[in-house]
UniProtKB/TrEMBL annotation:
PANTHER family, A to Z: PUTRESCINE TRANSPORT SYSTEM PERMEASE PROTEIN POTI
Originating organism: Terrihabitans rhizophilus
Pfam hit, one: BPD_transp_1
Biased composition (Pro residues): 382-393
Membrane topology term: Multi-pass membrane protein
Subcellular location: Cell membrane
Protein name: ABC transporter permease
Main localization of the protein described in the UniProt heading: membrane
Alphabetical keyword list: Cell membrane, Membrane, Transmembrane, Transmembrane helix, Transport
């Protein structure tokens, strides 16, 4: 039994290591390659520690313009998708079972449609609508940002609806009825009873819709037309060749994700402590500890650490190391060329033509074409002397 337990434990540990290695090894590799001075993302051979690739990323004009475009589109998609999803979730909770099934199917169909189809159908629909209205190509009917927002909302609003529907299943409708019985208007009952209950779902839906819009590619590549978002610009950059600036982008995304995750965990633990009555007891009784674990303090500390790391990295100069590596590469290349020349000189006598391998003389070419392709075959022949009795003109 002990051998079996040990074997199972070994298999579990091995599987866990493989699983987490599969998940995090690419992140570790990209993080390391972001600080290697090699022009191609690689870990080995290591050249110089540098932070120049972050500057290359920031100076990439197309990526920065695409980032700004994606931010504008994402904010607009959130502003439209969250209310639409909330309205759909409330409608699902208020109608009967048969109508609910039909409405639920209609609202979820856009999620099941491929993004390519959504993108093409969006530009075809709005293009035909604009031409029917006599609008020019400078109107919003043919604007890439507007078309991208419209295409994203068609399916991202369904994500928000699912989040609100899951939250509304825990809502007690008698609370709204009680507010109405006490003289509140439907609007007041919604704002003062239902909306506070839906506040966590609103935050989750907003964050999810922003990410879904920001990272979408299949629909955006058609609807953005001649413009570009951050995702499409990044895809074009990868298509034409990659450099460690993409690894620098991955490092920035990882850092922002860690800051957000740690701050969110601190907020969750503080809320649990408040709900359980432990906010001022035990370890939290110490004011310093209570202030140190506050989500705002944790977030500020993490941002300060990240800002310090950015400043320290901007002060690092890898020019001397790069120059040394360049000189070493030139020396290695020179030695390689000299070695090749030496080998060629040594092999030259053995490749000299022998009498048996000398090229045949003109006129003795054994070719079946009679030497038509031999050298000098196209040279003009000397003029023949005139024959007697046939004077030349």
């Amino acid at each position: 039994m002990s051998a079996g337990v040990a074997g199972n434990r070994f298999v579990s540990v091995g599987y866990s290591l493989l699983f987490f290695g599969f998940l995090f090894a690419p992140l570790v590799i990209m993080t390391v390659t972001a600080f290697n001075s090699s022009s191609f993302p690689r870990i080995l051979p290591w050249e110089c520690f540098t932070t120049d690739w972050f500057g290359v990323l920031v100076r990439d004009r197309r990526l920065m313009e695409g980032l700004m475009t994606s931010a504008i589109i994402g904010v607009c998609v959130v502003a439209i998708s969250v209310p639409v999803g909330l309205a759909g979730a409330i409608a699902l909770s208020e109608v009967g079972p048969r109508v609910r099934a039909v409405l639920y199917t209609v609202l979820l169909v856009p999620i099941l449609i491929p993004g390519v189809v959504l993108g093409i159908s969006t530009i075809v629909f709005w293009g035909n609508l604009g031409r029917s209205a006599g609008a020019g190509y400078d109107t919003f009917f043919f604007n890439g940002k507007f078309l991208t927002i419209a295409g994203h909302v068609t399916f991202i609003a369904a994500y928000a609806m699912l989040i609100f529907s899951a939250r509304l299943q825990r809502f007690d409708p008698t609370l709204t009825e009680a507010a109405l019985d006490l003289g509140a208007t439907p609007g007041q009952a919604f704002r003062k009873v239902m909306l506070p209950f839906l506040r966590p779902a609103i935050a989750s839906a907003g964050f999810l819709t922003l990410l879904a819009s920001f990272e979408n590619y299949n629909t955006t590549v058609f609807t953005i037309l001649a413009g570009s978002t951050f995702t499409t610009a990044l895809a074009s950059k990868v298509r034409y060749g990659i450099d460690p600036s993409l690894s620098a982008l991955a490092v920035i995304i990882i850092a922002l994700t860690l800051i957000g995750a740690i701050t969110s965990e601190a907020f969750t633990r503080r809320r649990e402590a408040v709900l359980n009555g432990r906010a001022r007891s035990g370890l939290y009784a110490n004011p310093l500890v209570r202030s140190a674990v506050h989500p705002a303090t944790v977030g500020v500390l993490l941002i300060a650490v990240a800002s310090s790391a950015v400043w320290q990295g901007s002060q690092h100069d890898s020019g001397t190391c790069r120059e040394t590596m360049l000189q070493e590469k030139r020396a290695n290349q020179e030695r390689f060329l000299q070695e090749q020349q030496r080998r060629l000189r040594e092999a030259a006598p053995s490749r000299a033509p022998t009498p048996s391998t000398a090229p045949p003389a003109v006129g003795t070419n054994p070719s079946p074409f009679g030497g038509a392709f031999s050298s000098g075959s196209l040279a003009p022949s000397p003029a023949a002397p005139p024959r007697p009795g046939n004077p030349s003109p």
